[in-house]
Amino acid sequence: MDNKEFKTAIEQIPVPKDKVFSAISKGLNKDVNGRSKKKKVLAGLATTAALLGITVASGFVNPTMNKVLANTPLIGGIFQEFNDATGVELANLNAVTELNQAITKNGVTVKLTSAYFDGNVVSITGFVDENVEKGHNEKGEVSFDVNFEHNKGDNDPWLNGMSTGVKKVENGYNFQWKMEYPYKSFKENYTLPITIHNINGINGEWKFDIPIKQEKNSTLVFNQEQGYQEDGFKIRIKEILTAKASSSLIYETVEKYKGDDIYILKAVDNDGKVYRFGNGTSLEESKQEDGYHNTVRTEMTKLNSTITSLTFYPRIHVADPKVEQLLDKKSFTLKSKRLNLGLQVNDVIQNGGKLVIDYQLTGLPKKLSKGKLDIINNNLEYAFWLVDKKYLTKIDPENPWPPKNHGIPFNKVKMIDKETAHFQSTFYLNGEETIENFKLENTMLLFDFSSFVPAKDLKPFTVVLPVENE
Question: Is 300 exposed, middle or buried (0-12, 13-18, 19+ CB in 10 A)?
């Protein structure tokens, strides 16, 4: 990618959401004694994601939704609160299961009020009373430490991509959980066990068994493929499943480079209607002779049954492998493996419990706007890892994170000169994340260029819809 292309694409530099949310989780998931807790599902009147300017896909908002509310059953009101057009439509179709399950533990009452399963999405709505405000969170925030199907901790597939909305109401808070159905095959009718372990730090075991129902999806089979030889991958559109109020697209990517994030931004039918997509659920991954295969199912706007073709607009975000350097020298240069980006380290200074690294980013376009510089500054806070070299092999490639007490994944960034992309990063050696018996000559610096690689829009391609449903 040359400098001109990079400058054009810099508009699409991503904020590293997984790293940002991990950082937020580590900061928020503390009790008053500072002990770490399991991942919680957090929401508030002013959500963390909104404060960071990050958009979390949680459904599709129909601009005509207000016109149909007059005919919406009472249960549909909560879906209006959370801008859930799918829920409103399902309520109109009497396809939402109304619930009345309430449990009180340690003075806090939780009541689950509705459930629906449509396409790829399962929704649970409920109410928690105002006694939850006696917990540790700020007023207006409600966090649930929750698991599904008797799973434990973060090893729960229902938590991947789960979103939570919370609205203050009289005597408490309404909430909605939206989860992507995590399995390859569907069960039309089943019971979903739910266990809430604590709410706002208030312990208790609120246990529910929720009936989940979905009528059989209709299926359009495509198996049409588009190749992108220059970028080293291809996309195969496999199926579109259509439920009552939404559809789901199943597609497969084949990548030359493991970790490339290939996704479909939108689709446009032959009548000009635009279809949007939610977060994807990975159904199957494998390494084969022609590359890394990944089959994904993603929620989409309900398919119009009268159309004859769809044009898909794919996008790729390149995964650039982390580069490594032992901190046994004061200055060195690191180069991106797949792009013309570099890191020139000018100095490494240890001062008591602080380690300061002075450096410049190279290969960036000149005269970046303040907004772009702010994004780069934010991404730099998560781009560096310090790891005890003896523990590099302990990092799980499927869930990469520095080993406890042997890695520091965060730093505080200071911009020295924006014209030369000159920065300093300060690592706090005695903070929550630390390295036991820290010595520079035993510490490996890992740097992730992926946060500075712009997403690339690819040439759209058109598939013809089958004549008949299967």
Answer: buried
User: What is the gyration radius of the CA atoms in the chain, in angstroms?
Assistant: 24
- pLDDT of 165-218, one tens digit each? 999 999 999 999 999 999 988 887 899 999 999 999 999 999 999 999 888 889
Residue 327, pLDDT score: 97
Last residue of a domain, one of 190, 213, 236: 213
Residue 207 sits in a domain of what CATH number?
2.60.40.1630
pLDDT tens digits along 276-330? 998 888 999 999 999 999 999 999 999 998 999 999 999 998 888 899 999 999 9
Specify whether 286 is located in the same domain as 413.
no
Number of domains the chain contains: 3
- Backbone dihedral region of 201: left (phi > 0), alpha (psi from -120 to 50 degrees) or beta? left
* Domain residue limits at 227: 218-318+456-464
Q: Are residues 308 and 352 in the same domain?
A: no
Same domain assignment for residues 204 and 243 = no
Long-range contacts of 167-170, Cβ-Cβ distance < 8 Å, separation of 24 or more: 167/45, 167/81, 167/82, 168/45, 168/140, 169/127
Q: For residues 364 and 125, what is the distance between their CA atoms, to the nearest angstrom?
A: 46
pLDDT tens for each residue of 397-410: 877 899 999 999 99
CA-based nearest residue to 445, from 332, 341, 319, 336 = 332
Note every long-range contact of 214-218, with CB atoms under 8 Å and residues 24 or more positions apart, other chains counting: 214/117, 214/118, 214/186, 214/188, 214/189, 214/243, 215/95, 215/188, 215/243, 215/244, 216/188, 217/119, 217/186, 217/241, 217/242, 217/243, 217/248, 218/242, 218/469, 218/470
Has residue 8 got a pLDDT over 90? Answer: no
Report residue 455 as tokens: 């997403």
Examine residue 10 and state whether it is found in any structural domain, yes or no.
no
Q: Which of 147, 179, 213 delimits the end of a domain? A: 213
Shared domain for 65 and 193, answered yes or no, is yes
For 255-282, write each residue's pLDDT tens digit.
Answer: 998 888 899 999 999 999 999 998 888 9
